[in-house]
């Protein structure tokens, strides 16, 4: 148009801002675009979100508005359009009184991404504490066992929340998971695991249960007659935090014991942690030509094997190693070329974000979680 309506909107927003009130654009998330605000407006929105909720509204903000604010904030951080401290302040505000599961659904995913990004940083143990405290309220509301009449969304949030808190080092969550797994192993029929948390509990048990839990999981994989349980066990075997156990999982994947179409599961599970990704890169890259010979024509397997190797640690050194490894053209990618390109760009983006975030997160932790 001629800009008249835009000018009127701008004037109105300035009036609202000058009064110290909040506003949201793209109300109820009806359009497909991100919204950023001034630091003063973000602060007003934090205060509104953190206020006690007497209904599904938080000081007039609908659940859709609150979910959009969380989604937009963390997306803007990844795009280098918003300081990470602003998004983390928003997470703290949500953690105080948020009742809507959709908002938590979004925040859990965003915190998971930061947990992955920061897992190799020196400040990571302090960040784990912050995540545990942010999620303390929602943790009290969601039980490990489904309750009659609970909202359907709880079933999707429950395993991800448990997984997030375990990665955050919540010892009560880890102990509970290990106890449930131990009881299940002792009497599978008498102590069945709830289907929506089975894979999460399997991974936690292998990650924190040591060699004993690994052997128990291997037995489940070898003896189970249920395809889903067998696949869950295979993925869990890649979640070990011990290099010798990771070596066993990788060797098993390449030995012929695992069907070719399932080989990418342990690869991706190993690569899910920075420690595992580093191990996978250093161990598997000398075998690249053999891997290509065996799996290179499998379009549903090879691309995921390749992308799993292009993971952390999120450092310039890793980027250089990957670039040099493929520089002479002797390492074939074949049908994985597109997946490799995506994985490499994703890695570059994470390296850049970690470089931007590190000092800011340390400062934020000093202020909020000293």
UniProtKB/TrEMBL annotation:
UniProt domain ERAP1-like C-terminal: residue ranges: 22-346
GO molecular function terms listed in the Swiss-Prot or TrEMBL record: metalloaminopeptidase activity; peptide binding; zinc ion binding
GO annotation, cellular component aspect: cytoplasm; extracellular space; membrane
Superkingdom of source: Eukaryota
One example of a Gene Ontology biological process annotation: peptide catabolic process
Family, as annotated: Belongs to the peptidase M1 family.
Protein name: ERAP1-like C-terminal domain-containing protein
Native organism: Fibrocapsa japonica
């Amino acid at each position: 148009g001629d800009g008249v309506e835009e000018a009127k909107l701008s004037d109105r927003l300035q009036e609202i801002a000058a009064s110290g009130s909040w506003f949201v654009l793209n109300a109820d998330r009806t359009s497909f675009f991100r919204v950023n605000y001034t630091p003063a407006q973000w602060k007003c929105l934090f205060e509104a979100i953190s206020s006690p909720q007497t209904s599904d509204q938080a000081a007039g903000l609908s659940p859709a508005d609150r979910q959009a604010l969380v989604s937009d904030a963390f997306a803007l951080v990844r795009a280098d359009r918003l300081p990470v401290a602003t998004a983390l302040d928003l997470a703290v505000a949500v953690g105080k009184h948020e009742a809507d599961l959709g908002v938590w659904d979004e925040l859990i995913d965003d915190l998971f991404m930061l947990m992955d990004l920061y897992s190799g940083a020196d400040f990571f143990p302090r960040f784990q504490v912050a995540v545990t405290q942010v999620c303390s309220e929602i943790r009290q509301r969601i039980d490990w066992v489904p309750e009659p009449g609970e909202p359907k969304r709880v079933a999707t949030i429950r395993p991800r929340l448990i997984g997030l808190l375990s990665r955050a080092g919540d010892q009560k969550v880890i102990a509970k998971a290990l106890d449930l797994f131990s009881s299940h192993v002792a009497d599978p029929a008498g102590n069945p695991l709830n289907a929506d948390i089975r894979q999460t509990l399997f991974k936690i048990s292998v990650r924190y249960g040591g060699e004993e839990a690994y052997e128990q999981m291997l037995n489940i994989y070898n003896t189970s007659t249920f395809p889903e349980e067998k696949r869950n066990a295979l993925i869990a075997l890649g979640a070990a935090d011990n290099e010798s156990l990771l070596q066993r999982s990788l060797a098993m994947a390449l030995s012929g014991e695992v069907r070719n179409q399932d080989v990418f599961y342990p690869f991706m599970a190993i690569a899910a942690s920075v420690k595992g990704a580093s191990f996978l890169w250093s161990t598997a890259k000398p075998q690249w030509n053999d891997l290509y010979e065996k799996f290179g024509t499998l379009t549903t397997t090879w691309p995921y094997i390749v992308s799993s190797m292009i993971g952390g640690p999120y450092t310039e050194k890793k980027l250089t190693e990957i670039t040099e490894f493929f520089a002479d053209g002797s390492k074939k990618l074949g049908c994985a070329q597109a997946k490799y390109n995506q994985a490499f760009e994703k890695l570059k983006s994470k390296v850049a974000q970690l470089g931007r975030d590190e000092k800011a997160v340390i400062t934020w932790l000093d202020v909020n979680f000293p």
